[in-house]
Specification:
Blueprint (H helix, E strand, L loop, with lengths): L9 H4 L5 E4 L9 E5 L5 E3 L10 E3 L2 E2 L11 H5 L7 H5 E5 L2 H9 L9 E3 L9 H5 L2 H10 L4 E5 L8 H10 L2 E6 L5 H7 L6 H13 L4 E8 L7 H13 L4 E6 L6 H12 L4 H7 L8 H18 L2 E2 L27
This protein binds iron/sulfur cluster.
Length: about 325
């Protein structure tokens, strides 16, 4: 069990026990999986006081969903891999994650705290279709009645619907699906490995129909490409129609590692916006506060209009949204996607 703030070292992950596989099927073409046996699986979040969770489980590193803006890109550089194409195609798989988690959940010093998954990279990315680590992880959490949450863009989560339902009978389970916009052309270029936004909303619809509370993290709202009033309205309306319990807007942030990759993409696909982005993100990784507040207010107003509850701390943990959708208009500072 990891009780400090250290990440896995490259030496630990890429030692002699690593098995690297390239699978020659259309689904996995161009992707290399590095199968490792992790030494620990419960990770304590650095600076957890700013997060709504303290512990995470991450069975994968790198993500074939390949979102251009992904903030986790930076973490691939710790493995001596690049934060661009390598992040999308060199996927580390912790093949012993389920067994390790089951063992760590029984440790005497483990207090049964909430565990967040999908907050670094997506645990329902395509690799999960091959390695199927999540059923074992969910089974361990269910057996220990350990509260947890999952954030994903992957429709594969529906494979585990029955396990999620069983877990929700014995503990707090929070599911959030990430849908920042509906625009098809934008999706194809900026989130090229993900299921379409409409298919993600089908996940919300299905989970809700089976009695599993599901919120939507409306992330990222992309300045000048996905933030027009009619775009925000269409997205919130679709989220409401899918039956989401809550909607949490989050404006694009561009940390080092993601910033360079995103700006290269922007220059290729929307060169006329490069100067505007340089000005908007001149102060660092985040859009200006006034902009974040504006987007948050707009989304909350639309959410109220369409009858979907706004974000509030704890909502992702399966706590019912407030009856009155009159939440604060301040920017949401979560760092997840
Ligand atoms: S934003 Fe999420 S789904 Fe997209 S590449 Fe990053 S971890 Fe994967």
């Amino acid at each position: 069990m990891r009780w400090d703030n250290l990440g896995d070292s490259p030496a630990a992950l890429f030692g002699t026990d690593v098995v690297s596989r390239t699978i020659d099927t259309p689904e996995f073409r161009g992707i290399t999986f590095h199968e490792v046996r992790a030494r620990s699986i419960l990770n304590r979040v650095p600076g957890a006081s700013r997060m709504p969770f303290e512990w995470t489980v991450n069975p994968y590193r790198g993500c074939s969903h390949a979102c251009v803006y992904c903030f986790a890109r930076k973490t691939h550089s710790y493995l001596d891999l690049d934060t661009g194409l390598d992040f999308d195609s060199q996927i580390v798989v912790k093949v012993n994650a389920p067994d390790l988690l089951r063992r760590e959940l029984t440790a005497r010093r483990w207090r049964g705290d909430h565990i967040a998954m999908g907050t670094n990279v997506d645990c329902y990315q395509r690799a999960e279709g091959r390695y199927a680590l999540m059923p074992g992880i969910l089974t361990a959490l269910r057996d220990h009645a350990n509260p947890f949450s999952v954030l994903t863009k992957g429709t594969l989560i529906l494979r585990d619907l029955e396990l999620l339902r069983q877990a929700a009978e014995v503990t707090d389970v929070g599911i959030s699906v990430s849908v920042g916009f509906l625009d098809h052309a934008l999706w194809r270029t900026v989130e090229p490995g993900t299921p379409a936004p409409s298919r993600r909303l089908d996940v919300v619809r299905t989970l809700t129909a089976h009695g599993i509370t599901c919120g939507v993290l409306m992330a990222p709202v992309i300045p000048f490409l996905g933030d027009a009033p009619d775009q925000l309205r269409a997205t919130v309306r679709a989220i409401a129609e899918a039956g989401a319990a809550s909607v949490t807007p989050l404006v694009l942030h561009l940390r080092p590692g993601a910033r360079e990759w995103f700006m290269t993409w922007l220059g290729r696909h929307h060169p006329h916006l490069v100067r505007r982005y340089e000005r908007m993100y001149a102060g660092g990784s985040y859009a200006p506060t006034w902009y974040q507040r504006r987007i948050t207010r707009q989304v909350h107003e639309l959410a109220a209009e369409y009858g979907v509850g706004p974000y509030r701390p704890g909502a992702h943990r399966g706590i019912a949204p407030p009856e009155s959708p009159a939440g604060p208009a301040g920017p949401t500072q979560l760092t997840l996607l």
